[in-house]
Amino acid sequence: MEDDPEVKEIMGDEVDDAADEQRTNIRGSGNAPKSDGSDQEEAIVQCDTSAGPITMHFYRSWSPHGYDRATTLFEKGYFDHSHFFRVVEHFLVQFGIGYTTDKELKAFSQSTIPDDPKRPELLPFKEGMLAFAGSAPNSRSNEMFIAYDRAGSLGQSPWETPFGKVTSGLENVKNFYKGYGDMPPWGKGPKQGPIYKRGADYIKKDFPLLDKFETCSVQRMNQSSGSNLFILSSVVLSVILGFGYLQRKKRKFNKITY
Predict the structure, then answer these.
(1) How far is residue 141's CA from residue 231's CA, in Å, rounded to a whole number?
(2) Closest C-alpha to 135, from 116, 158, 119
(3) Confidence at 64, pLDDT banded by 50, 70, 90
(4) Is residue 112 within 8 Å of residue 26, measured between CB atoms?
(5) Using CA atoms, how far apart are residues 33 and 16, in angstroms rounded to an integer?
(6) Dihedral, 18, 81, 151, 128 alpha carbons, nearest 10
(7) Is the dihedral of CA 19, 214, 144, 24 positive or negative?
(8) At what angle do helices 103-110 and 227-243 cross, to 10 degrees?
(9) Residue 98: closest CA among 183, 192, 166
(10) Which residues contact 4 (CB under 8 A, 6 or more apart)?
(11) Of 46, 173, 170, 65, nearest in space to 113 by CA
């Protein structure tokens, strides 16, 4: 691409208030439970996609909050049938806007989580690594990306902490359709706002060649006795915090990935 995708600010259109309220920080509420999950916990996530199967390995020790959120969303089927809506050759694949009609799951997905400490030994980003997209400190919620081979500059923003990597099917990830390029104004791909508002219909009508998830399965490993309780309490708290945001007015939503 003519422009360098590593210095782009991605601006969404007006979306439902639930999407806009991804800026709300659970930690800032003062009610977030402290994790007692095992940092040794890992998860194997196997997904069928329109380009072929992929397997991802998530590590709680890399990013505890990121791991908990990502693993739970995959377990709940939030990403099933959602699209890889931003595919920039040699840079990244972005996904995470689910099409669920479950209000509680939607509210949970769009509540935010605190940033995790940086792990310098995991940087620079390597091809196949996964992390959350974000717009500001403590803004991680549901959107994530898989790094391509020239994403080494990622990792400087506080939300760009890897939580896992693709361990099988990376060739399928590299074969995701790239013909639309980046989001406007840098490419002709879809905007995030209309995806939140119109869901799969927007993609199917205007960007029919984009690849997507089919279904995924999750296998957790090395769980401590307290991790299940923590995950459950985090889910309940996120639903309580997030559900109220669905009722407010629409406004502008930003999601930035450099």
Answers:
(1) 15
(2) 158
(3) very high
(4) yes
(5) 28
(6) 130
(7) positive
(8) 100
(9) 192
(10) none
(11) 65
How is residue 203 written in tokens? Answer: 């993609």
Lookup result for tokens 């939030």:
78
Token look-up 């931003």 returns 86
Q: What is the pLDDT of residues 164-218, one digit of tens each?
A: 999 999 999 999 999 999 999 999 999 999 999 999 999 999 999 999 999 999 9
Question: Token match 């089919």: residue?
Answer: 214
The pTM (predicted TM-score) of the whole model is 0.77
CB atoms within 10 A of CB 205: 9
Using alpha carbons, select from 153, 19, 206 the residue that is nearest to residue 99. Answer: 19
Q: Which two tokens stand for residue 164?
A: 């896992």
Here the tokens at position 196 are 């939140």
Distance CA 22, CA 141 (A): 6
Q: Which residues of 8-33 are buried (b: 16+ CB within 10 A; e: fewer)?
A: bebbbebbbbbbbbbbbbbeeeeebe
Which two structure tokens, joined as six digits, stand for 64? 């505890």
